[in-house]
Structures are given as C-alpha cells and as structure tokens.
Amino acid sequence: MVDQLPLAVRIAMLEGVRAERIIAGGYADGTGGVCPMLAAHRHGGRWSFPDFARTWDEFAEAPIEGLRPADPVHVEALADVLTASIEDDLRVDAALPDTIGTGAAPHPSAPVPHAPARVAARSPAHGVPTPSGIDEAAGDGPRPEHAAARRVVAGR
Asked: In angstroms, how far apart are the furthest CA atoms of the chain?
C-alpha cells in the first residue's frame, strides 16, 4: 500500500510520523494528534489516498468509533515500511542508468516496481544517461527528492 504513494509523499510521511503524535481512527484529534496522511501533508506531501487511511486504521487497530493515540509499535512499523520503500526507490533509480541502452537487466536484488516509467523518462531519445544517472542532453540533474530521501532515511 505504501509503495502506491509518490516518493515525495512517502518522504514527507516518514518525516511526519517521526515528528508528530500519530493517531488511529481519525484525521486529527484536536489536541495535536494526527493520522499519518495529515502528518505527510504537514511535511509537504500533499496527497489524498483514502485506501491508505482505511488500511492504517485497520493495521493500527483503531476503535470502531472514535480515535486514539497510535501504539508506538504500529508507528515504528509504518516508519520501517516507509524507510524500506524509499530505499527501494533509490536502489531502482541507481540501477537504471547503468542498464539503459545496454540490454542488461538491473542487478537481481534491485526491485523494479516503478522502472518502466523511469526507463521511458530517461530513454536514449532524451540523450545518453551518464554513469551518475544524469541525462545531460535532456538537462536532467540529480533528482532533488533523493537527497531529501537519504536525509530522512538517515534520520537527519
């Protein structure tokens, strides 16, 4: 479910669940507690995904009516899943430039859930990707969310 969120939203959600008091069973509790999606919004990840909210409430064992602070074990599990998902995206992007135009497949341990869109975005029609992954002919630079992702994953 987390992998369906854009990378920038996952980064913001990870920042949010580390910084905010997270609740289950509602959007906000009126005393500062927020759901993970609102935490993401507060940290720059503007996205709406009702299925995530329902899944979070079920996972966090939210009460049928009302809300409560999320158990720290559930919040830590969400942070772990977000971290793994962000790291997977970074590994996929790192693997792709080395394989474009060579006919070679990415390293077997590199997950490729989002690869087709990235391959199209960095195809030789846009120029030739350098070993650093920068498609200079297309005016690409390093993906700015990667630096943010690495800082968030590292807890800085």
From this structure: 56
* Cβ(71)–Cβ(61) below 8 Å: yes
Q: Which residues contact 41 (CB under 8 A, 6 or more apart)?
A: 12, 16, 47
> In tens digits, what is the pLDDT along the chain, a chain of 156 residues?
899 999 999 999 999 999 999 999 999 999 999 999 999 999 999 888 999 999 999 999 999 999 999 999 999 999 999 999 999 998 887 776 655 555 555 545 444 444 333 333 333 333 333 334 434 344 444 566 666 666 666 665
Say if CB 7 and CB 89 are below 8 A apart.
yes
- Please measure the distance between the N-terminal and C-terminal CA atoms of the chain and give it in whole angstroms: 25
* CA distance linking residue 33 with residue 39, whole number of Å: 9
